[in-house]
Amino acid sequence: MSFISYLVTGISLGSVYAIIALGYTMVYGIAKMLNFAHGDVIMVGSYVVFVAVSNMGVNPYVAILISMAVCTILGMTIEKVAYKPLRGTSPLAVLITAIGVSYLLQNLALLIFGADTKAFTSVVTLPNLVLFEGQLTISGVTIVTVVACIIIMVCLTLFVNKTKPGRAMIAVSEDKGAAELMGINVNGTIALTFAIGSALAAIAGVLLCSAYPALTPYTGSMPGIKAFVAAVFGGIGSIPGAMIGGIILGVIENLSKAYISSQMADAIVFAVLIVVLLVKPTGILGKNIQEKV
Amino acid sequence: MKKKLLSLVLAMAMTASLLAGCGAGTGETTGTDGAEVAEEAAEETEAAEETAEEAEAAEETAEEAEAPAAEGGVLKIGGIGPTTGGAAVYGTAVMNAAQIAVDEINAAGGVNGMTLELKFEDDECDAEKSVNAYNTLKDWNMQVLMGTVTSGCCIAVAESAMADNMFLLTPSGSAVECVQYDNAFRVCFSDPNQGIASAQYIGANALATKVAVIYDSSDIYSSGIYEKFAAEAANQPFEIVAAEAFTADNKTDFTVQLQKAKDAGADLVFLPIYYTEASLILAQANQMGLDTKFFGCDGLDGILAVENFDTALAEGVMLLTPFAADATDDKTVKFVEAYKAAYSDTPNQFAADAYDAIYTIKAACEKAGVTADMSTSDICDALKGAMTQITVDGLTGDGITWSADGEPTKAPKAVVISDGAYKAM
């Protein structure tokens, strides 16, 4: 019975990684850049909800919408100010800028909110699910997280495959130059990608902090790195890959904590990553695109 | 053109958000500002005294007149601890309480005719920053160090203090290595002693028969307590049914550790950790429907001060701490009143440790006949000898004595959290 419990919390943890990883993977797929500031957008989103709910008494669901709006604007601003001017230069320059933006956001949060831990009030009011006469308790947050992850996943897949802006994203990710020649607004598409990724980051932040209610300016950094690993694991650039990668990562982390060593969990997760990349360098669902000469 | 306009607007928006940030920051730190203002005011009074002194001693040489002080001079005490960051509750409490003690002593005539002056530097609970803070204080001509507040930082600073032969008295650095050199002493119990005392307390009061432990294996404080607790548990009428570790990089999800405690049938979870993680553990235990007792050490002190924390989660949590703010003895009542009046907050155990630390420095200075014109190294040698001879009746215990290895001797006490406040057990 405890195995099921470990599995369920692993899936829940993995679902949060998956939602964050979606942001990484979409941006990478389309702009071919690693947005290391993504984890910190999550932190900003969580602080927005915290301030709105705890300090201003806004309804939690309205607060989530506000947070999504703030993160969308933030994501698009970061793209416009920090990344767009560097598009076309060396990929290394953009990578360094992304790390810079990440530290900028962390330190701004440190300045505004201070480094003290804030206890985040869970926005999920669903009661715990008690099964098998109390032997298995699944918390409301866990259920909501998994459901939210699946809904986001389905919506995003439909959006990318069925709508015009979504198909434009695929076109841009496959060949930027050709897409531009076909009359697709490449800059607009990339901005839209950042907007969606950042709005997802806001949701991820709320779910993360509802499950683990200690909010600090560094809240986003470790989950951000793990989610990046999840995105690579699943095949960076692939939306279902991010989902699968995230959940597998969460489950491995939790099960190795439970059955091998609670101290070694991170080491095991990253060791598995190395093995997967050695066997399948593009990740689980990564496409191996051959360069045509 | 349109694009330029847009980037301009965005740049302005970013600048505005920066400014807004500054505004909010200042608003939040009003408490500290207040303290600083008080400090400044105290300094000003001192400066005024100095001027008067200088006028009186007109015939003295210019060099002597420049010496910064009243009759016996000024003894400069440096303090280091986290006043921002995850452990800010500790550092702020130490800073505030030490200032209260310094002001009291100065108002009562000082030590050996000297007035005390306290300067407190922030280290954000980071060992490297702590050493930087130590060097800043040395530039300020610190003569005695009251710090640092946390163990990891204290070990780093103790190396420098040993090299300089600077007297070091840590209020709350509980790792063994904090006082490994002969110039270092502490007010609180060491980690091993906390671990042993916790095990004995749980055993003697029959709080549990099956105990689970969740500790931070990457933190010397936590693992230090755990090791001694586990060793002492063998002599006690309870058994450790689960001992689960976590590390600094993986300290948000504790469901697995708690599930293991639940599966092992633990009726008490021992948490030799700091309050930030403990607040997560209590929240997750509540979500999982785990209903056990929780017992912690002084690291849990401060959990009620976490912003927005639901104190109902901490109801019934017990912690080993030598100070309860609701105790009714005269000393505690007087201290708590002074602290509340100055900082509108209830002092925790760290505050009491710091208050005792300043009075310990006073007692040792009196015993050794320290004067302000002695060199830092001479003061250190004099205080080292005096520490083993003094007995201090403090907030954290009556008749505290020290051995030459820097460890205090006093009776352990525990408190329980009830109705959102610490109550003596």
Provide the CATH topology of the largest domain in chain B.
Rossmann fold
Radius of gyration of chain A: 19 Å
Q: Mean of the pLDDT scores of chain B?
A: 81
Number of domains of chain A: 1
CATH architecture call of chain A = Orthogonal Bundle
Unreliable spans of chain B: 16-69
N-to-C span of chain B: 72 Å
Strand order of the largest sheet of chain A: 1-4
What spatial form of chain A do the alpha-carbon principal axes imply? globular
> At CATH's second level, what is the architecture of the largest domain in chain B?
3-Layer(aba) Sandwich
At the fold tier of CATH, the topology name of chain A is: ABC transporter involved in vitamin B12 uptake, BtuC
How many helices of chain B? The count is 13
Mean pLDDT of chain A: 86
Treating each run of at least 4 consecutive H or I residues as one helix, how many helices of chain A? 11
Q: Provide the β-strand percentage band of chain B.
A: 15-25%
Q: Give the helix level of chain B as a range of percent.
A: 40-55%
CATH class of chain A, please? Mainly Alpha
SS class of chain A? mainly alpha
Structural features, described:
The complex is a heterodimer of chains A (293) and B (425). Chain A is mainly α. Chain A has a single domain (2-279), classed as ABC transporter involved in vitamin B12 uptake, BtuC. Chain A has helices spanning 2-31, 38-55, 60-83, 91-113, 140-162, 164-174, 176-181, 186-211, 221-234, 239-259, 265-279, and strands at residues 118-119, 129-131, 136-138, 214-215. In chain A, the strands form 2 sheets. Chain A has a two-stranded antiparallel sheet with strand order 1-4. In chain A, strands 2-3 form a two-stranded antiparallel sheet. The mean pLDDT of chain A is 86. With 425 residues, chain B is an alpha/beta fold. Chain B folds into 3 domains: 2-70; 74-188 and 327-411, 3-Layer(aba) Sandwich (Rossmann fold); 192-321, Rossmann fold, CATH 3.40.50.2300. Chain B has helices spanning 2-28, 30-56, 62-66, 88-107, 127-139, 151-164, 191-204, 220-233, 255-263, 275-288, 330-343, 349-368, 376-387, and strands spanning 74-81, 115-122, 144-147, 167-170, 184-186, 210-216, 239-246, 268-271, 293-296, 318-320, 392-394, 397-402, 408-409, 414-418, 421-424. A 7-stranded mixed β-sheet of chain B has the order 7-6-8-9-10-14-15, with helices on both faces. In chain B, strand 11 and strand 12 form a beta hairpin. In chain B, helix 5 packs parallel to helix 6 and helix 12 (349-368) packs across helix 13. The longest helix of chain B is centred in the first third of the chain and has 27 residues, at 2-28. Chain B starts with a helix and ends with a strand. Classes of the chains: A mainly alpha (293), B alpha/beta (425). At the A-B interface, helix 1, helix 3, helix 4, strand 1 and helix 10 of A face helix 1, strand 7, helix 9 and helix 10 of B.
